[in-house]
Structures are given as structure tokens and as C-alpha cells.
From TrEMBL:
Signal peptide range: 1-19
Source organism superkingdom: Eukaryota
Keyword Cytoplasm: no
InterPro entries according to UniProt: Cupredoxin, Ser-rich/MCO-related
Transmembrane segments: 181-199
Gene3D superfamilies named in the record: Cupredoxins - blue copper proteins
Protein name, entry field: Phytocyanin domain-containing protein
Keyword Signal assigned: yes
Organism this protein belongs to: Dioszegia hungarica
Keywords noted in UniProt: Membrane, Signal, Transmembrane, Transmembrane helix
Length: 200
């Protein structure tokens, strides 16, 4: 009887979701984007942002004031110039401490106003979705968005064609997703792919 209880307890414990590391690519294909940009995370999960191109940041805002630093926030990567073709990448980790939504934006130039935002655990319906957040971010740039302002400094030059698809992308990056994404960068991408393969 007692050992049955123990076994049952062990089963329950084993079914508790364990923390994982989720991979996010910043600046894929020299676009102003986080891939993926809608994250579902458990408490304890670590978000590993890998900067591959451009000069972006991972910064935190509130929902209602997108593109502005949350005064009491603890998330800021600093600006991370990167060029994966030249072998220059860096990464930044964010630990998820609770189930509340986390609102992320890029503080570089007008990237946030161009939709370079990400949400963690945003509701999927109602008025605080990822899409509502991105729409609000876009709206803060309503008067400044123009073709010329899109080439603001630090965006990574050639290839930053503005073709960035910033619509919501899948909510959980599998290791395979990130591998295929990163491998689009060729040889150095392959090295990075190998690194992902080792750690995942
Ligand atoms: C990057 O390029 C690959 C290959 O062309 C494409 O499949 C992918 O959707 C692109 N991603 C972004 C964020 O532009
Ligand atoms: C984050 O990604 C980088 C590759 O850009 C890798 O070297 C590093 O080990 C990863 N860190 C974690 C905690 O997954
Ligand atoms: C930080 O500020 C936000 C918005 O002003 C507030 O909702 C939140 O509770 C604050 N968090 C902490 C840890 O003080
Ligand atoms: C979680 O807490 C750690 C340690 O205080 C902090 O560095 C990190 O930024 C927090 N994560 C979020 C999403 O606020
Ligand atoms: C990235 O590095 C490659 C190889 O060194 C170089 O040809 C390319 O111009 C660089 N890209 C940018 C945007 O600086
Ligand atoms: C969202 O809707 C609720 C009512 O359902 C309202 O109280 C709240 O102010 C709205 N928030 C925003 C950011 O529009
Ligand atoms: C925000 O702007 C970007 C870039 O123009 C666009 O791709 C995205 O669909 C917009 N998002 C919303 C919710 O309007
Ligand atoms: C955009 O310009 C209009 C007219 O000048 C002004 O009323 C509005 O407040 C501006 N919006 C932003 C977000 O700056
Ligand atoms: C990256 O962007 C920051 C903020 O705009 C800027 O201060 C820094 O000089 C940039 N770095 C490079 C290498 O362009
Ligand atoms: Cu950016």
C-alpha cells in the first residue's frame, strides 16, 4: 500500500513539466525580427536569444507602452552588433520567473516601430495578444515610418530589404526549427548548427 503510494507520487513528479531552453534567432536573414516572436514558456524556462545579423537588442516594455523601457524591468541585452557570415554572433539569456506575459522589443532606431517585438505568454485572445502588442508598437511610429528611416543606422545593410515577415511566427521553436533556420547561413551556420546539436 505504502509503496503503491510512493510509486504514484513518483509518477506525478515525473509528469511535472521540466524547464527547458528555447532558442530564438535575432536578425535572421538580416531582417529586423525575432524568430519565433510568440513564445509560450513555463516558469524556469530559459530563452536563449542568438544575435546573427544587424545591431539589435532584447529590451522589455509594458504592454501599454511598447517601445519604451519598463522602468522596473530587468531584461536588457545591450546592443549586439552581429554578422554571422563573419563569424560574429552573441547570445543573451532570459529566465522566465512567472507566468505573466513578458513584452519584448528592440530598442535600436525605429525597429520597434517597424514591428520588431516579441511576447512571452501573451493571451491568445482578448485585447492583449501578440498582435495587439505589435499593432500598438507599429502605431507609435505612425509619423516616422518611411522608406528612408528604414535604413536607420545599425540595421545590417544589404539584405535588410524590409521584407521581414513580422507576423506571429510559431510559438515554440524546436531545436530542428532553429537548426534549419541557422543553417541558411552556410558554413558558419553549420558550425552554429553543430553547436545547437551538441547542446540540444
Ligand atoms: C530566412 O530565409 C529562409 C530561406 O530563404 C526562409 O525560409 C525564412 O523564412 C527566412 N526567415 C525570415 C525571418 O526572414
Ligand atoms: C545559446 O545559443 C548559443 C549559440 O548562439 C550557444 O552557444 C549557447 O550554448 C546557448 N545557450 C544556451 C543556454 O542554450
Ligand atoms: C513593474 O511595473 C509594472 C508597470 O508599472 C507593474 O505592473 C509591475 O507590477 C511592476 N513590477 C514590479 C516587480 O514592481
Ligand atoms: C527573472 O529573474 C532574474 C533574476 O532576478 C532576472 O535577471 C530576469 O530578468 C527575470 N526575468 C524576467 C523575464 O523578468
Ligand atoms: C558581414 O561579413 C561579411 C564577411 O566578412 C562581409 O562580406 C559583409 O559585408 C558583412 N556584412 C555587413 C552587413 O557588414
Ligand atoms: C482590455 O479590455 C478590458 C475589458 O475587457 C478593459 O478593462 C481594458 O482596459 C482593456 N485593455 C486595453 C489595453 O485595451
Ligand atoms: C507591424 O508592422 C510590420 C512591418 O510593417 C508588419 O509586418 C506587421 O504586420 C504589423 N503588425 C500589425 C499587428 O499591424
Ligand atoms: C502624429 O501626428 C499627428 C498630427 O501631427 C499627431 O496628432 C499625433 O499625435 C502624432 N502621433 C504620434 C504617435 O506621434
Ligand atoms: C550598435 O547600436 C548602438 C545603439 O544605437 C550604437 O551605439 C553602436 O555604436 C552600434 N554598434 C555598431 C558596431 O554599429
Ligand atoms: Cu532591432
Amino acid at each position: 500500500m505504502f509503496s503503491c503510494l510512493l510509486a504514484a507520487t513518483a509518477l506525478v513528479a515525473a509528469s511535472v513539466v521540466s524547464a527547458e531552453t528555447q532558442q530564438i534567432v535575432v536578425g535572421m536573414n538580416m531582417t529586423r525580427s525575432y524568430t519565433p516572436n510568440t513564445i509560450t514558456a513555463n516558469v524556469g524556462d530559459v530563452l536563449n536569444f542568438t544575435f546573427v545579423a544587424g545591431n539589435h537588442s532584447v529590451s522589455q516594455s509594458s504592454f501599454s507602452n511598447p517601445c519604451k523601457d519598463l522602468s522596473n524591468g530587468t531584461v536588457f541585452s545591450g546592443y549586439m552588433p552581429a554578422n554571422i557570415t563573419a563569424g560574429k554572433t552573441s547570445s543573451y539569456q532570459v529566465t522566465i520567473n512567472d507566468t505573466n506575459p513578458v513584452w519584448i522589443y528592440c530598442a535600436q532606431g525605429n525597429h520597434c516601430q517597424l514591428g520588431m517585438v516579441l511576447s512571452v505568454n501573451a493571451p491568445t485572445s482578448g485585447n492583449m495578444t501578440f498582435s495587439a502588442f505589435q499593432g500598438a508598437a507599429n502605431a507609435t511610429g505612425a509619423n516616422t515610418t518611411s522608406t528612408s528611416s528604414m535604413s536607420a543606422s545599425g540595421t545590417g545593410g544589404a539584405g535588410a530589404s524590409g521584407a521581414s515577415a513580422s507576423a506571429a511566427t510559431s510559438s515554440k521553436a524546436s531545436a530542428a526549427d532553429v537548426r534549419s533556420v541557422v543553417s541558411a547561413f552556410g558554413f558558419i551556420g553549420t558550425v552554429l548548427t553543430a553547436a545547437f546539436a551538441v547542446m540540444l
